[in-house]
User: Fold this.
Amino acid sequence: MKERLYTAAKPTGRLTLGNYVGAVDNWLKMQEEYDSIFCVADLHSLTVNIDPKELRDNSYAVMANYLACGLDPNKCTLYYQSQVPAHTALCWLLDCVTSMGEASRMTAYKEKAQSNKNVSVGLFNYPMLMAADILLYDAKYVPIGEDQRQHLELARNLAIRFNNKYGETFVVPQGVYQKVGAKIYNLQNPTKKMSKSDFDNSGNILLEDPIDVIKQKIKRAVTDSDSKIIYDPENKPGVSNLLSIYSVLAKKSMKECEAFFDGKNYGALKNEVSDIVIATIEPIQQKFMYYMNNKDEIEKIATQGAERIEAEADKKVKLVKERMGLIF
Assistant:
């Protein structure tokens, strides 16, 4: 029996090359090795002010990209978070075993609260909902980025605390972190993560970008005044970012990449990166357009995925309620 793996992504903005390199490409291997659940975390998107039509369009687009990138509903479970009510039910139960102190220490909340006084209670509660997402399905492994490490640690702590107080109920999850290419940076600001939530996408390569736009973005990517092509994130962040992209897509080690580019200039590096990015993205775009023109297929796949796991999620919430003393 395969071990369970769970991960989710918010549909806030369209997927970038960073999402593909740092997450989705790795998920393709994981769907073969694990009992994998991939969720579009649409409820998490409500923590910020987002137009309903934009959220709906983004939700379709993220699922279409998942399918276009190669996630197979016959090999994994794909669904929308809001389709399974057990997520929010378990969130409240976990709220009641979470202290205000540990919830207040979440870095993502603190940073956003400092820059915006009108933050929602939902944003504060975000980590507990994320913990509920994971713990509902007894996931042993959770592929996440470095920016979610603290939230996963909270999920682990809540699972351990609940198990100690009420008896063995939750599997304590482990994070899966991809080393090279786990975080792809903005081409114009290579100290900032390439994010699908950015308002300015001049430094982001979107999976839906036209091919000529992709070429221009890579051509204009920030490098440095030196000419050596080596992986040195601290001193050469722009060049290192391009090497990371090439390394993952070409499936070569960083040493192999450095040897390949030895003696070549930055123009050659950008041309090679451009070629391999386009070769990767073009077939994805063709499949993406098919699904976006056939949204009923997306809905059918997501509904079947939700139905596949809903009974399991409901059973877990029922067990948690019984352990906490609630009467049915």
About this structure: The first helix runs from residue 17 to 33. The mean pLDDT is 92. The CA atoms of residues 105 and 136 lie 24 Å apart. Strands lie at 4-9, 35-40, 77-80, 141-143, 174-176.
